[in-house]
Amino acid sequence: MQHTLEQFFRALRAADVRVSPAEAIDASRAAMVTGYADRVLFKDAMCATLAKSADEVDAFDSVFETFFSRDAVSLNPPSAEPQGEPSQDDLDQTASSPLAQAVLTGDATAVQQSMEDAAARAGVADIRLSTQRSRLTRRMLEEMGLEEIERIIANARRMPDGKGEALANRLDAARRNLFTEAQAYVARQHDLYAAGSAQELREERLIRKQLNADGGVDPVDYQLMAALVKKMAKRLAAKYSRRRRAAQKGHLDVRKTLRKSMAHEGIPFEIEWKVKKVDKPSIVAICDVSKSVAAAAQFLLTFLYSLNEVVDRMDAFAFSGRLISVNAILDDNGVEGAILKVLQQIGFQQTDYGRSLQDFSEQHLDRLDRRTTVIFLGDGRSNFADPRLDLMKQIHDRSRAVIWLNPEPESYWAQGDSVMHRYARFCHVAKQCGTLEQLERIIDDVLRSYVPH
Amino acid sequence: MTLSPPAANPLSAADHLSSVDALIEGLGSVGYIASRRIATALYMGVKLQKPILVEGSAGVGKTELALSTAALLGLPLIRMQCYEGLDESKALYEWKYGKQLLYTQILKDRMGSALADAPDMDAAMVRLHGMGDLFFSEPFLEPRPLMKALREDNGCVLLVDEVDKSDEAFEAFLLEVLSAYQVSVPELGVIVAKTPPLVFLTSNNVRDLGDALKRRCLHLHIPLPEAALEERIVASRVPGVEAKLTHDLVAFVQTLRTMDLRKSPSISETVDWARALVLLHADSLSPDLVRDTLNVILKYEQDITAVEPQVVELLHRR
Predict the structure, then answer these.
(1) Do the chains contact at A33 and B48, CB–CB below 8 Å?
(2) Residue B185's domain spans which residues?
(3) A41 touches B: beta carbon within 8 Å
(4) Which chain A residues are within 8 Å of B48, Cβ to Cβ?
(5) Which of B221, B249, B283 is the last residue of a domain?
(6) A50-87 pLDDT, tens per residue?
(7) Which of A279, B198, B206, B235 is the most buried (most CB within 10 A)?
(8) pLDDT of A114-125, one tens digit each?
């Protein structure tokens, strides 16, 4: 049974339920207490020891049901005519194949057992890809001794006067039945162990996909990528919310003070205070929403807005020809619909960086202080208008850090109408940010810089 | 913080813990209607001696589970409410600083006479080291809830309430208590519990708890109950309420939960509502009555204004 439990843990891990060795040991101990007879008790006990959040409980429930559902093998296909007890003659003919005998006598348990054993020998549980399914089904059937049955069928058909015809037909039907059963079994194993890995493969590809590629992001991938961004943001939030410290100044640390006072004859000479720091970043995001950058802008905003747990204050501005605050639009429409709304308001104008910077410094400059990190997202292509570097310098001087994310690779930065190399001088960090992976890394850096060292 | 053990239960604790069904029945007898999953988690917690981390939205009976378990098993309940800034001096132990200061004063006064006949400095030092050092010793220790729970020789129920509100540093500090049922006091050494307490941790998901903490606990998520279970809970908690009224009000609350509200009413709100209706001598739900008492089940002005116009419709929808 220990082996079965191990397989179950593997299936759980494939479904994103994290099972550490310590939890596996706990679960095994729990199984010893509950036994396996009471299915509900066993399931609830496993759930309590293995699933550690509401999401994991859901995943656990579905994996448990799939894993421990062993639909009894149905031996008779529905179309088959009623069959009597196998004659002694038939049994003699099939003596060489225990499987054939089990099928003939209707011993479902034996067939089931032989199927499980064959699956273990064929390594069905190691399935990784859906394309392996037919090969593994075949292997499994071979391991079960299907060749022997086929030989018996052939022998029976060769018998004179069609004496073996009835037996051959019965075995043939059973053979087809076994085939569908084995297929279903392998499919179930694939769902348990491999369905997650295919998803992982796809996600891995999307993480590296260029956001400003020709034709933009495929709508099919869009949902998945948005989910991915939220997942990344959650990971970062979990990482940094744990480092957050509450402010607590002015409390006397009696213990430390007394310790120190030992050196001064018990007179509290040096007073120690409890000091903790609050350091949540405050972020201003300024996004170019022209066509080439719009997709990246949406993912950046999704990312930042999913971080509200660890970000103290977050303001978003969008610009193309002019600059507007998009906080209200984001609150009303959610991040998904916001970009479209923004485009309706300011889209389809020629991008003007200088003009947009001027809008920002005239209306929103008071938003910047020593605690603010400014994240620009844009390609730095100003259509040969005045880039207004003086305003950029002003933003740089007022804020804690200026980070410029550019979807274009660095080699393009000084070419054509790009003024990126000139803006870069006023940025603490200027980086290419074309994929979700790069985006995550940069925001990780932003958050880390706020952690007191 | 320690509550005295309630009147002894006719059945012994061991009887209640013999099986999950016995546990469900036992909890029922002290007024807690438990689902099978809840009882199983509790059963495993006792059998495996593991703390139980109880999650669920506010008012589904997380704290109540610990209270009822203590009542059922006849164990004292030690409760520790967590909050931001909670540290070990409030959770574990504190030195009695005043007495320690007095002690040093006494020591100083006596020191002269004790060391007067020492021939030289070295001899005085040797004699000083020979004296017992009581400065950091048990008599000067002021135990706080965690330490108290470990020192209950006959076991107890320790409730660490809303652990998600405490800081991450405190969570890390809990790990030692939870995995080994011991604490180390740097000045004294390790203090081990004779009988491990039965530990409940509750969380409202204000923040995600660390994996290390989760790993050491059994996990129990208490969802909002189904109608049938909730009716039984109301019936058990509010003795005077009629079956028909119980059915109606639970059905109404269940419909509210399907709506998009800022705070869905949970079990404690249903129970409060039932109590209020009993006090008002109501025997059925009328639209006016519901409107007048909506503030018992809905805690936000927006929710009340959203639901109020629909009350008649909601009452008829069932």
Answers:
(1) yes
(2) 2-90+144-221
(3) yes
(4) 26, 29-30, 33, 49
(5) B221
(6) 988 888 888 898 888 888 876 555 555 444 444 555 66
(7) B198
(8) 888 888 888 887
